Amino acid sequence: MASNHRNGDSHIHHLPKKPKLSSTSLITPSEIQSEFCHHDPSVARINNGSFGSCPDSVIKAQQVLQLEFLRQPDHFYFNCLKEGILRSRTVIKQLINARHVDEVSIVDNATTAAAIVLQRTAWAFAEGRFEKGDVAIMLHYAYGAVKKSVEAYVTRAGGCVIEVQMPFPVNTNDEIIHEFRKALERGKENGRKIRLAVIDHITSMPCVVIPVKELVKICREEGVDQVFVDAAHAIGCTDVDMQDIGADFYTSNLHKWFFCPPSIAFLYSRSSPKCLDLHHPVVSHEYGSGLAVESAWIGTRDYSAQLVVPKALDFVNRFEGGIEGIKKRNHDKAVEMGQMLAKAWGTNLGCPPEMCASMIMVGLPASLAISSDSDTLKLRAHLRENFGVEVPIYYRAPKDGEVGVITGYARISYQVYNTFEDYTKFRDAVNKLVSEGFTCNLLSN
Ligand SMILES: Cc1ncc(COP(=O)(O)O)c(C=O)c1O
After folding, report:
1. 198 near 147, Cβ under 8 Å?
2. Could you give the CA distance from residue 326 to residue 357 in angstroms, rounded to a whole number?
3. Residue with CA at minimum distance from ligand 1 atom 16
4. Residue 1: its pLDDT value, please?
5. What global pTM score does this model have?
6. Which fold has domain 322-442?
7. What confidence score (pLDDT) does residue 23 get?
8. Pocket test for ligand 1, best of 50, 143, 147, 264 (most atoms within 8 A of CB)
């Protein structure tokens, strides 16, 4: 990568190609099927949210790159890698409306991006820029790994972490905004400083689209130093516009909803003096060259997933309306399928349609007696093994005085490869369990 550590010059003759944002021939239903023909046909895969999906044309392009590297690694390293990663960053920059390509780094995943941002917070405590007891705010529904990262880098460094309690089911953005303001007030008690807010764009479990733009604005008004948006699910799923959202740091995986193979995420950091001093936790020869360059070489490994972003964009552009069209149709279908299931089971959705993207929470019948997180895992395995349905389930503990309420919500996803039959298979499986008097107590540990 850098000419100073591999005994050679880096010959970069080509400027990154401009991403093509339009397409002439639209993909047909049978072409969609063959793009995802590697999916196990016995499984109704209504969980795109967890691991995403990658079409055959992108997998093939990745394999070509892997072979090119193995064929002549030195040539690939000196002449192709850096240029290819810059090309991917340029595509991402345009997709997310960043001001400059230097604001965009490519990392493995959202977990890595969170470590990069939070490590910086830990240094601020260690180097005396933050004081013990300074505050970080995060949502109660923050992703488990990110919560652990906050524990590892903020709590351990002396920071105080305040969680925003969120209602679920949720009906309006105002309910979220209200709780967020309450947490900020608590954070500022006794003159404490709020150094960082970690806000999800789409929470994982339960999934809800969070009004990030409004929350970022509130953070600015309330003097929160910096805002990091964990948008692991966002690109390809909901609107992702850096200038509009206005966060300091923002990460999203491209392997979830943007058809890239695992694993690739971008980490945006606003070009501002306040956003400097970000470093990749894996230190290489590139340390100090800026996060984008540091992240583009973290030692010898397979970088092919980071190089196929233009190919994923080509795939996306075979659909009517490109990524915007995909997002809208997936959203509409997720809502339609969610409503169909809720009606069939006599339950309700976890949020109104305008608060979800391509995933939605659907209440499961109370008679299934889901009464712990462990029940959700057992029921999920039961559905996988006995009915060929893959869907994550959330446990919502009843509040004081609540009796006979829905305690389990399934998170269904809709992606371009899904069919109506995927959801009727799930509907019928649950109906069968209910008609047989099944309860989660019947599942062994
Ligand atoms: C909100 C959120 N943050 C972070 C992650 C972690 O993503 P990854 O495993 O790709 O790092 C996820 C994964 O589902 C997520 O939903």
Report:
1. no
2. 11
3. 204
4. 39
5. 0.94
6. Aspartate Aminotransferase, domain 1 (3.90.1150)
7. 47
8. 143
